[in-house]
């Protein structure tokens, strides 16, 4: 039984095949002798023949063609999806560029308007300063004129009293100026 199993496994070892150069030596055993005739080799040879038969080859090629077609369809679908995403991204970029141009135009307009407003404010400030200086000069002039007997509406009550005291001290001395007399000053105050 063991011999039958070995024969089945390794072929007929005792059939006397002397194809191997080592087989003629009595002390050595050729482990490869009989492999060519073993039933497994004949079965695998038949299988290999059926594997490489034209029909089987065509079927396997059809299988590969289907795989290749599926891969190609997947690639085309991915490519189409990426193209739509690219188009959408390009449209978004165009919209953003248009918005940027509009914002830049608006920014330029606002900067121009800002400069005009700054110039106007500066001119108003200079005008106000000049007007204040002019009014100060007029007040000074009127104050000096009021000191000589003219009417100055900006005098306060204490200034009027001071002026009266001065006039009363001058009444004791004769004056040639009729505007410096207290009677004339009071009449001017009531007239104005």
TrEMBL record:
One of its GO terms (molecular function) is transcription corepressor activity. It comes from the Eukaryota. One of its GO terms (cellular component) is mitochondrion. GO terms for biological process: extrinsic apoptotic signaling pathway via death domain receptors; Fas signaling pathway. Residues 155-175 have a biased composition (Polar residues). Residues 144-192 are annotated as: Disordered. Residues 61-120 form a coiled coil. Keywords: Coiled coil. PANTHER family: CASP8-ASSOCIATED PROTEIN 2 (PTHR15489:SF2), CASPASE 8 ASSOCIATED PROTEIN 2 (PTHR15489). This is Uncharacterized protein. It comes from Anguilla anguilla.
């Amino acid at each position: 039984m063991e011999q039958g199993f070995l024969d089945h496994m390794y072929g007929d070892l005792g059939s006397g095949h002397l194809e191997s150069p080592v087989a003629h030596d009595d002390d050595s055993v050729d482990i490869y002798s009989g492999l060519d005739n073993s039933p497994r080799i004949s079965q695998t040879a038949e299988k290999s023949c059926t594997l490489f038969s034209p029909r089987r080859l065509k079927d396997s090629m059809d299988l590969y063609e289907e795989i290749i077609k599926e891969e190609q369809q997947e690639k085309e679908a991915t490519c189409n999806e990426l193209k739509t995403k690219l188009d959408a991204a390009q449209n978004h970029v165009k919209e953003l560029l248009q918005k940027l141009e509009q914002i830049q135009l608006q920014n330029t307009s606002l900067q121009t308007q800002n400069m005009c407003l700054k110039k106007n404010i500066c001119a108003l400030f200079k005008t106000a300063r000049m007007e204040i200086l002019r009014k100060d000069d007029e007040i000074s002039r009127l104050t000096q004129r009021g000191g000589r007997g003219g009417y100055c509406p900006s005098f306060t009550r204490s200034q009027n009293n001071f002026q009266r005291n001065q006039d009363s001290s001058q009444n004791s001395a004769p004056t040639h100026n009729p505007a410096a007399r207290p009677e004339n000053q009071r009449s001017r105050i009531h007239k104005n």
